From TrEMBL:
Taxonomy, superkingdom: Bacteria
InterPro entries: SAV0927-like (IPR021415)
Record organism: Oceanobacillus picturae
One of the Pfam families matching this protein, by short name: SAV0927-like
Name under which the protein is recorded: Cytoplasmic protein
């Protein structure tokens, strides 16, 4: 940085990532999963094909429709993703 910006924080961390790919009824899904640092009940789920992510816990999968909106999936695809995440989280 050439001095134009005041750096407020600059950290490097090592995280454990879990890569999971599966073939659903509608398409193939590739995800990277990592534990959320501040909330141990949550997982950061990164949809590698769409470059989108959601922070979700197992209990969140039952009562909201964020998967459709955040991951840009149809309702049927999101149901499939939700069912899969319930098994692996």
């Amino acid at each position: 940085m050439g001095g134009k910006f005041e750096i407020l924080k600059d950290e490097t961390k090592t995280k454990e990532l879990r890569y999971i790919s599966f073939m659903g009824n509608y398409q193939r899904y590739d995800f990277a999963l990592m534990n959320h640092e501040e909330d141990p009940d949550k997982t950061v789920v990164i949809h590698l094909q769409k470059n989108r992510f959601i922070v979700v816990g197992k209990e969140d999968l039952d009562n909201n429709r964020d998967v459709e909106h955040i991951l840009h999936e149809t309702a049927m695809e999101a149901d499939e993703v939700r069912a899969f995440l319930k098994e692996v989280l």
